[in-house]
Amino acid sequence: MVVDRVRHEITAEIAGPRNAQLLDTAIGSALLRVNRLVFAAGTPHHHLSALLSPTRSRVLLNRTGDELEVADGLTIARDVDRGSR
């Protein structure tokens, strides 16, 4: 398999009872959700979703200088519910 690209999405969510217990954190704590979608031959190949406690986890991004100049590797999206205004 040759990987074409990998898409990472990092979001935040609140720990419910089950995830708080599994991650040994308090209910209502902020958690990080990291979704990873790998594409091969132009189509999705596999998906991974991980829920992390920010007190014990970090997200690291390493890029070369060449990658920074030619790639659009990091986008920050803000989702707005325009119907609630």
Helix-and-strand structural type: mainly beta
Ranges with pLDDT <50 over ≥5 residues?
A: none
| CATH topology annotation | Chorismate lyase
Alpha carbon gap, first and last residue = 47 Å
Domain unit count: 1
Order of helices and strands: EHEEH
Coarse morphology:
extended
Residues in helices, as a percent range:
10-25%
The CATH class assignment is Alpha Beta
Instruction: State the total count of DSSP E strands.
Output: 3
Strand order of the largest sheet: 1-2-3
Q: CATH-wise, what's the superfamily?
A: Chorismate lyase-like
β-strand percent reads: 35-45%
Q: How many strands, which pairing sense, and closed or not: the largest β-sheet?
A: 3 strands, antiparallel
